[in-house]
Amino acid sequence: MVDLAASPEGAEAAIVVDRFCKSYNGRRVVDELSFSVRRGEVFALLGPNGAGKTTTVETLEGYRRPDGGSVRVLGLDPIRDAARLKPLIGVMLQQDGLYPMLRPREVLRLFAGYYRQPQPIDQLLERVGIDPGTKTICRRLSGGQKRRLALALALVGNPQLLFLDEPTAGMDPQARLATWEIIRDLKAQGVTILLTTHLMDEAERLADRVAIIDHGRLIALDTPERLTGVDSATVLRFVAPAGLDSRALAALPGVQRAEEVRPGSYLLETAPQSMPAVLADLTAWLRDRGITLTELRVGHGSLEELFLRLTGSEMRE
Ligand SMILES: Nc1ncnc2c1ncn2[C@@H]1O[C@H](COP(=O)(O)OP(=O)(O)OP(=O)(O)O)[C@@H](O)[C@H]1O
């Protein structure tokens, strides 16, 4: 295996996990896990319940000690160098029970006190969609508001590296979109983000690279485009009215095979280099016949399909 810590990328990397192992009561839950996260990258860690994501993230945050292998964060050891590391990272915690009787502004002010150059509190609250003047105490905030306050707490110290553990769990669609916007803005500012999520579309939309872990082992790591095969796609699927002429579709230039797999669900096969032209020809063919398609997908399938294929569909813990 490559020694990531010693590689040039390792020197540049925001996070290096190198053959990291962790056991609880003799049961190995993280098994020789290695990956690195580049500076400025949004990196998503996916895996079924119990796969070892939280164990890994909490080790990177300095809350757990590796049994074997090593982890480096911004070039530092999260436990030994905790005092130097803490001001550089932001952590969005899973549990929202912090200071239940305080108002959001008060909790944020308390946290801001730990940092040398905190963000302006009211601006930050507005950015995450919480009214800075709200009199509601934390305990009475909605689930989504609690998550947004947790995000503000993670951001208050202007971190270089942000750990987001299921950042949009429990949020309504509007709050989720707003949070994705914040994450994109942070990336544009050069903040490195390690994200864990169970939402495949969240990973697909936000992450530069996605790692899938299962039983504490890395089973896939790549860009969402490469994982879902958009880059090297030879298959195009679309949904349109049933009964289109498959033979005419197969006769489009570059199409090797055309089939109506179910009524109204079509599949075309082509060489990867022909895909852009086939897409254009297909839509022109449909336009000439006054047909509107309702779905169009290029590639093997979604990240979710890949995830289920790799990790199986049985329920975990
Ligand atoms: N402190 C602990 N003591 C004993 N077992 C633990 C401890 N922490 C985690 N585990 C076990 O280690 C395994 C990995 O847990 P972990 O929380 O890292 O998984 P996860 O991928 O984050 O799961 P989820 O998606 O459910 O949050 C699980 O089987 C869990 O029960």
UniProtKB/TrEMBL annotation:
Parts of the chain that traverse the membrane: none
Domain of life: Bacteria
Coiled coil start-end: none
GO CC terms of this entry: plasma membrane
Annotated GO MF terms: ATP binding; ATP hydrolysis activity
Subcellular location, record wording: Cell membrane
Domain (ABC transporter): residue spans on this chain: 15-240
Predominant subcellular localization, coarse grouping: membrane
Matches recorded under InterPro entries: AAA+_ATPase, ABC_transporter-like_ATP-bd, ABC_transporter-like_CS, ABC_transporter_ATP-binding, P-loop_NTPase
UniProt xrefs under SUPFAM superfamilies: P-loop containing nucleoside triphosphate hydrolases
Keywords, ordered alphabetically: ATP-binding, Cell membrane, Membrane, Nucleotide-binding, Translocase, Transport
Identification of the protein by name: ABC transporter
Lineage: Bacteria, Bacillati, Chloroflexota, Ktedonobacteria, Thermogemmatisporales
